[in-house]
Amino acid sequence: MRRASILILALALAVRTGSAQTRNDLPVSLGSLLDREYPGWSFAKAHPDFSSLLKEKGMFPNLVFGDYNQDGHRDYAVRIEYHQQAIRRAAIIAFVSEGAGFVPHVIRAYEENPAPEKSLSYSYYSYLYPQPRGTTDYDYELEKEFVFEKDAFMDVADGKGSVSYIFEDDKFRSVITGD
What we know:
Elements: H1 2-12, E1 18-20, H2 28-37, E2 42-43, H3 48-56, E3 63-66, E4 75-84, E5 87-98, E6 101-111, H4 120-124, E7 126-131, E8 136-139, E9 144-147, E10 152-157, E11 161-168, E12 171-178
Antiparallel strand pairs: 1-3, 2-4, 3-4, 4-5, 5-6, 7-10, 8-9, 10-11, 11-12
């Protein structure tokens, strides 16, 4: 937990990446894309403890940005809720800039489901966090520290476990960075 707190403090100082909360923080084209693909979407609800912790640092749990593909344009990752076929769902989706638009990448999907790792309650206890280029973290699978060579973002579960998502070869690669 101490490691996660130190990481949060260090990342909050980054200027190339960030976090936001309202639809107004999205480009119009990205909001339109979400409206078309996920009618009635809204930012996912997060546990108040996480929301408060992040808000104190000027951040929010559901919308982060950086330059994931290193093209000089802002890319985004969002946690949203929506209804599809009468089922309540949630998702983490990254939007990578390409020309005048964005290419969506579904990172993780949740629904009303008894399996804990796929349920909306899991989504409620997680939040997004930016990881700027140059940040050092620990890869639990390779058991070694590494440096992010480009902006990335992290899905933090229950304030402890985390998975970072790094854009490589036109897709996101996951790295377990918290345990």
